[in-house]
């Protein structure tokens, strides 16, 4: 049993060392830290300016409640398990309670760090909505309590076969608890909600989990998803050999872009289009960032939204960089009698088109948010300028350097 305890510590240490190596590479080989530092400074300025222009009836507390409910309910447990564990650790499942308890504590601490940052950013908005320091402390305690409860209940769901009703219950009780805290219900009501959550945990989640078996497939899949989040981020700046790629057919969407030409200049262009649609989550990432950016552009900050448009376009471009190293088009390089310059040009052009389309969409919402149709050209110019510089200057120089090496 001592070996099982040391196993968790060793895997946690190995994961920390691996991430530390990639962070060192990211810090040395990219301007990410400078960009984040600039974003914090400029974002703080515009955040204050946005708060000053908010009407008194703006539902800031409701907005924060919805965001924190989402982050509290989403509570994956980092177990550091591997595919082979469902064979070699399965006979020891009855003795793994301590191993998985450490995983839950670790997950709680790491996810609370993210929640703390969100709470820190959301504090001025809450105070603008009429909150007080005392009520904000109650909100913080409720958020951390909801996170601990969700992590425990989500782990118990790994032993239960039908979890949809239980997941919906977690959503409902978490939103109810945070709503009571945000809208300053009597403390006795908050305590009663906490009591209901504890009873649900004991008599619904733990009771059903005690008679079930651990779903090793679900646990390992959950661990791989979390590991891939960081590896995909690191892959934006350096090669990550451990990165796994997934492919989805998406026949309906892929059918909208059939192969139309067999010219040398069109080969890689069509491969990049198909890869963008079918592989990993490039398309999902592009849609999510566009939607989030569009909603953010609706905030009434006037012509300063041009900076927001440029920032969203830049972040999207960073997320598209791994497409260049994707193994699907790269594996076919030797099969086509096509110069590598065509591949480079096709990739740069494809990224520029994607960023330009995103700039156009963001500019529409930015003009609506600024209530100034005349501001549309300014927002579009900002987005297109970032698209042009990022694709035809930064990406072109980067892929040319890799090709020369």
From TrEMBL:
- One of the record's GO cellular component terms: membrane
Q: For this UniProt entry, which segments traverse the membrane? A: 25-47, 53-73, 105-127, 133-150, 187-205, 346-368, 374-395
Supply the alphabetized keyword list: Membrane, Transmembrane, Transmembrane helix
Q: Does the keyword RNA-binding apply?
A: no
One family from Pfam that matches here is EcsB
Matching InterPro entries, A to Z?
Answer: EcsB_ABC (IPR010288)
What's this protein's name? ABC transporter permease
